Amino acid sequence: MKSNGIMLLILFIVSSFVQAEVYRHVDEKGNVTYSNMRSKNSKAVDLPSITVVPAIQTEEVNSIIERRKESSNNKKQRNDIEEQISDEESRLSDLKNEYKDGTPDRLGSERNYQRYLDRVERLKGEIAVREKNLNNLQQDLQNLPNPN
Hints:
mainly alpha; 2 domains
C-alpha cells in the first residue's frame, strides 16, 4: 500500500513538470503542419497561456436576449404600422379631395347622370373603408407595448 502511494506521488510530480510542446513544420512545398510530436526540421512554437473565462448565468443571458428580440420586433411592428397609417391617411385625403363633401366634379365620361351618382357612392364607400382601416391601424399601434 505504501509503495502505491509513493508511485502515485512520483507520477504526480513528474506530470506537473511535463509540458506539451507544439511543433511547426514547413515542408518543401511550403505547407505548414502543426503537431505535438517533434519531427525533422520542425521548430517548437511558443504559445501564450490559455485564458479561462468563468461561465455566465445562461438563464439571465437568455432572458436578456429574449427581451432584446421582443423589443426589436415591437419596434419593427411599430414602424410598419406607422408607415401603413401614413399611407392610409394619404389615400383618405386624396379620396376626400375628390369627393368634395358629396359634390365631386363631374367627369367628361359621366354624361349619363347615373354614372356620376355611382362614382359618388363608390367614393363615399371607399372613404368609409379607409376611415375604418385608419382607426384599426391606430388601435393596433396603441395596443403595442411602449418602446423603452
